[in-house]
Amino acid sequence: MAAEGGRCPGGLPEQGRARKRRSSFGSGAELQAAVLRLLDHHQNLNDFLLEVGSGWGWGRSQLEEQASRLGVPTAILSAKNVVTNIERICQASASPSTVPLLNLDQRERLSSLLQSVKDLLENNVFSRSFFCQEMWKMKVREILLCYRPFRLHLNPSAPDAVEWLCSGLCALCEQAVESSGDMELAGHILSDFAIMFLQNGFQQNLELGKKMEFKKVPNICHAVLQRMLTWVLDAVGKEKQEDVSTLQARRFWLNVFSVSLYNSAVHPDSLQQFFRHTLIEVLTYNPLLKVSDAIHMQKEWSFTRTCSLLTTLYRKLFVAFSPKESICQLQQVLETHEVNWQHVLSCVSTLAVCHAEAEQLFKDLLSHLLTKAFGNYDVENMITAFLIARQAALEGPAVFMPYSKWFKASFGNAGSHHTSSKKALVFLFEFLSELVPFEPAQYLKVHIMYPPFVPSKHRSVLLEYIALAKTRLDDLKVAIEDMGLYEDLSSRDESVQPQGQALHDVEKALQIFENTRKIPTSVIEASIFRRRYYTSWFLPALLRPRVLPKTPDVLMAFIDSLKRADKIPSNLYSTYVQACGAMKKKMLQDGSQAGTSHSKEPVEQLKADLAELRVLIVEQAKQEDVLAQIAVVSDRLARVFCHSSDESEAAALHSPIQIDISAPRLEACHQSVVDLLLTSFCQNLIAASYFNAPDRQGPCLSLFVKMMCGHRNLLPSLLGRLCQLIYHQGPSLNNAHILGLAAFVVHLSESRALIPEVQVNFGISQPVPAKLLSLAEFWNCLLECRTEESFAFCMRFCTAAVSYFMCKFSSCSHEDLCALLPPTLVKKLQYIVPRLSLEARGILCKEAKTDPLWNSLSHPSLNYRRASLCLWKQARFQELLKEKAFQLSFREWLLLELDVCSEKDILSASERHDFHYWAIYQWYLPAPSASGGCDGDLEKACGIIINTILDSSQRLDLGTCSRSKTALNPDIFCKLQELVLELGCRQRLLSDRSKHFLLEILQERLKDRKPGSALGEQLWRQQELLLHRRILVGLPASTLIITCQKGKKTVLDCEDFFRFVNSELKNVCSRGYALSYDITSHFFRGLLNASLGCSKFAEAINDVLTACQTDCPIVLLSAALWWPKLEPVLCSQWKRLFGVPLAEELERLRELKSSATSFLSSGLAFPPSEPPWISAAFLHCAVQQQSPRGQDREALKRLGTDTQQLLVSLLFFSLMDLISAKIAPKEGVDFQMSLEWSLEILKCLEERGASWPLLFHSEKGAGQYCVLRSAASDHHIRLLPLAFYSLTPGFHQELLTREQTFLYVALDFYIQLLQLFVEGKDLPQPDQGGQSSDPTEHVISTARRFLLGAIPHCPAESFGNIQPLLATCEEFDQELGATLLHILRPTAAMELDEELVLF
């Protein structure tokens, strides 16, 4: 025996064990004899079993002998002794109170006893049934420990067993949380009990059939689990009253709902049955709350406000089901049980928050409920749908659509459920009416502002409900009059303070005013119909004192418009002005004021919540735990912004987000919050990436960003901060920052549906409102490629973003990738990578092997050029480039290239030249149009380049280059010149060419634009035409003229150019009757060059110049004006090209100039030529170059008597100069000298009795002077009435009687003058240094006095043709109209006067 155990086999008394001595027995036989003697004296088998352990086998005969002596079976005796030993062990605790767990000494003794019991079982001398009966009689709490080794099947009365087990389990949970050392052991014990309870309490039918003898056991196990669940749920409603340890004990019990606890120990069906049963019990627990209570209180049952015990329980239960199964369980319970609405709605919130796919499932459930409700007119389904929709909406738009959006989608259109019949309509409104007494104000506002669709014949039903809802709002002290003009009804807050809503309304109204320059209709209506809100809230929010800017801004213009419309009381406006002045004075005295201090406590709490979120991600916690913490962060974020000022509350939740890219401004408190969130995201990304690649990280980061997007008042600060980091600080960011921001942008784009459009301000004056940009277009603005630094940053950022995206969504289909990825990022890479890498310009022979992009990006020695090239070679990336949405078109490539600052480019001039050659000739020119190319069409390529150059010059952006808007990129323009030259060479081979492709491109851009529709359009058109002229001058001169075959003869066709000049180019000439020198010279040089292709070049030139007399006279007038500069250029070119005498028409122009100069200087006769207006043009231009006016007057007298047309033409040119002196003073034309010269010409005409008023007839029958009017710019023609009435000192009474048409002309011009003044367009501005009033008003008063004085002296024949003007004249000037009416109908006028006397 000694060899077996080496321990003393005797059962010594308790006090004798303290002394240890060596065995003095020489052999095993001696030792056995001693034992027998000891047993004979003590006969204590209890101590014997406790001490022997595994070395007792030789004592079996003694146990049998004692059993025989007592007359009981050996198995019964051993079981009895074991029970006695267990009782002694349990009672030996030193603790004054009984605890379920044994101490260390008790565990050691029990372990020794259990070893003996094991041996007894092996030798078949232990009665299990007797042992169980004796143990139950003990009812010691520590007996729970025996369940673990023996899986006992007790057979007591069920209530006693349940009570006994539950009290022990509760005590076990309490001890586990009180002593951290016992936590692990208690967990093991609890898991064993849980497994046993499930194995027995939720058996499958087959197992139950095999174990019918234990039918009480399932009931007991089932009852214990139910009792413990009740123990937990009782604490849910008393969370605030319970102490922390009590809640922790109940939370410890929730470990039994961990699916991983059971593994393969429990049948999957049993586990599902247990979790399903538990969910039903939770949802139906203590159903005391009424529906009315749920309507009123459900806001307090959101995820973050629900007791953590309940949300933890839900999250553990949902692990056993898919989201669809969870919602099906919820739906089944709602349909078959009476429920606890608090638990049901908390369940809805938990599902919505913790499962990303729950949103669509809830939408389907709501649709199903509404269908059933209207199908059976079932109120229960209706109330269920409304409560679920509202509860899900409480979790924010990142989780579920706002309630207002759901209500509109469900009932706001003609196809809604309630429109199927009148009964359905009445059912809906009866239901809504029943809710009214319990409804919070926010939902009533939704129903009023977005009412259900109602056919006009049933309108009374809707009006009755609205009246009822307004009554309820009055009861709630919420006046409908205080509702905002643009109130956001999707807010989770029950009510928004009127101050904050008014600030939001002001911001929205300003945006509308900025776009339309008109007071919004909603503001006008509010000032009349909602006077209380308008005067009490809107105006105070609008007229908040501030330091007024030196240059009036939009707010000042809006206030001024309201003041002029009498929408602001005078006393309120005076108070505002005084307060603004006082604020400016205080600012000057005190300097810049410190920002308002904000409470740091909420921000610190947010920081702690974000830190806890990071811990969960680092520890790779379950997804539902991370999502739950994200919900906590969301709730904290809402509380942080609640501490912001009223200005923050006024954030435009649905209006565009305004970002000033030039200098984005953020409040200090907002920036700190945004920085916390961005830092948290980057840290979470790095922490998650340490363990897993992005594709194995789950949706947590996506949902974190989506949560941020749900806080609309955060978005302006968030996008503004991203603008600061990416646009302004991008090149200075390190790789980790870039990687984090790139991933953030990817997830932000993933949630783009939650982000409004962005209104970008570039910090420069804008004649038209800024365009609203989508989120992808906003990224395009931030990721500029202009300088070496910005190129490098953009490549790094886009490479990181696209690489992260392709790894994160690697399991997505190609279609899903295309839907999620922002095209801007891919297009930037298409532009940059080939630009910087020669290798990328080649053709990939085969699909590149997929490399671990994410690993390379996170490598410390990251080389972004290598990484971008690696990405470029990815087969999946190349697949993306085949999609139209991701292809960088030729136009987009040009826009990017035109933005580059050549002097700061990352490429040298030669490298840039090579890149341009490859991109245009090797890539885009041969590429098909479907992929953004030109199909090999040179005309198409030229058209794209021209349009893009013009679009780029018209764009409003910050830019870093000092290049003028009319300056052209020399590199790109050089390529355009090459293409045009090549195209010109090809066209010479064509025999029949009918269209001028270049001018057709330019005219196509102007075709759909309406000139004069608005100031912005006028400025755009003027800028556009200046650019057109700049492009035409920059291209080869011969491109203006088409050389074509007419029969066997080669002719020059200028028809398209003439049409373009007459319709467009003449309107950007400041002299009114002549084009600028550059385009004039360019045309004549092109004419000479193009004539080289004609066999009779001189004849071809003569034909073109002769055609100009009728088709485009402004060309000849321009030649007259610029001939001193033009003549040497043309003569030199003619000599160089032909070497023969000038063509006849060119020689005639030179002779006209010489004759005009000689006539003025030497007194020689001036021989007029046909047509006379050409001679007049040369004479007028010669006069402009002569200084002494006296000689000019004498020269007029020396003109022959047959020079009437020449004098009238001279008058026209002088009047054009008169207008130019006012509208284009930089041209150097003196107004007073032009006026004096005009009066001299008029005097000369009057002396000769010439019929000069024909010059001002706009009808086609006006004769030979129509050609002059057609040559003048539209602007000058519109201002001709101003010039006409400047000549009133030269109008004499003889003119009235001699010219019967004069009164018609004078009256027509007076009306036109009034129309110009009323419209406020095209009028010249007053002299800056002058002290007189507006010159237009002076001319109008002069014209009016003249007409009132002249009309009585006009002969009767003069009134014959003024009838069409009479109605318009009466509209603008009633006195003048009455005067004309009196003269035309003296009898009728007299009768009218007599009738007026009667009144």
Automatic annotation (TrEMBL):
Report domain Fanconi anaemia group A protein helical positions.
499-580
Provide the Fanconi anaemia group A protein N-terminal domain boundaries: 160-478
UniProt record, GO biological process: interstrand cross-link repair; regulation of regulatory T cell differentiation
Q: Where is the signal peptide?
A: none
Q: Which segments constitute the Fanconi anaemia group A protein arcN subdomain domain? A: 601-841
* Residues annotated as domain Fanconi anaemia group A protein C-terminal: 1174-1375
Gene Ontology annotations for the cellular component aspect, listed alphabetically: Fanconi anaemia nuclear complex
Identify this protein by name: Fanconi anemia group A protein
Look up and give the organism this protein is from: Melopsittacus undulatus (Budgerigar)
Q: Which gene encodes it?
A: LOC101880843
